[in-house]
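Let us practice reading a record.
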Amino acid sequence: MSKFSKQVVTLLSVLLVFSLMFAGCNTAPATTNEPAAEAPAVEEPAVEAAAEEVEQVEEVSEAAGKTSDISIALLDGSNGNAWRAQMESEMSEYIDELKAAGVVSKYTAYSANDDATTQSQQMSQLINGGETDVILVNPVSATSLNPMIDKAIENGILVLGIDQVISHGGIVSVTTDQAGWARIQAEHLVNELGGKGNIVIFNGIAGYPASDMRTAAYHEVLDQYPDITILKEVDHDWDEGKAKQLMLTMLSAYPQIDGILNQECSPGIISAYDEAGVALPKVISSDESINYLRLWSDYNKANPDSKLNGIIVANPPGIGVTAIKVAVQLMAGNTLNDEVLTAVDAESKNALLLQPNLVITNDNLDEWIEQTTDAPETYTFSNCLSDEEIAALFE
């Protein structure tokens, strides 16, 4: 068993996590364009678990007291990929439960189409409208919204960063530890290559906090291994089509690629290899989609003597639901425990970093193939913190 399998939860824990993923924190990806009305709810695969979630929401409503009729807005940097669409859909479904419980009265979602100026204008409009209590932001930039955030705070609006860290001392960002996510994968690649070889790196969107943090973590690990050569480093902008075209170009330029460090879009990369008629490299990291899981498994079955040493590290879209739960508690006047917050820059200790709770390698790939038989290919592994876990974060 590789050293990374030690980070993988036991099968019992894995099954528990998976049951949570399909109970109250996942839906099929939304397909509407932004500015968006609420995404349509999708029937939960696990009916009993969904019922339990509603009961939990009612308990939050009773505990919230004066936090009824909260108006919440989401400012999403983009909803142009399946991960973001799933995040928005899961958030919308949970909001419907909060509305039924009387906790939330209004919810609106907007996309900035990867434009920082647009996102700033959207926040300004919400502030000036005077009807929004909470603004959740998946930012285009770590700092571009800071003047608007100052204005929102002055107007008594609670602002939270979600999925990515916003560098502002007056707000909390609720996100997966993106640097930790990247380190696990870089270390996996180094281990499988024996500390040497030729690799290429696909980053997300330059300037996006999550992409930049992951990139820095990649290099933090790779800098310790001088025998690993980075042939090319590019941005695929979290676009599978672009990832495929970039990979085709690199396949024609580099005859020997041993491994790929990748921020999602692995199906696009694998498609490029298929089109070029070239065997996959020894390692490709991570994509959290069911599509990638199945492509990886199918390749290994067809090539038992030269298996792909893939890896999936959870980066759940359910982080949006977790952020809503945190917002409800903060609106009730509750205070986060200081020890759960992390300083990710020199400005402030303002990040609630959640560690990846699922890692899939060849050691447990077959188990996950079996457990996801009925899952749609577009689904991304997802979960959110339970109400009990949320309560433990607060004083």
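A brief commentary: Residues 178-287 form a domain with the Rossmann fold fold (CATH 3.40.50.2300).
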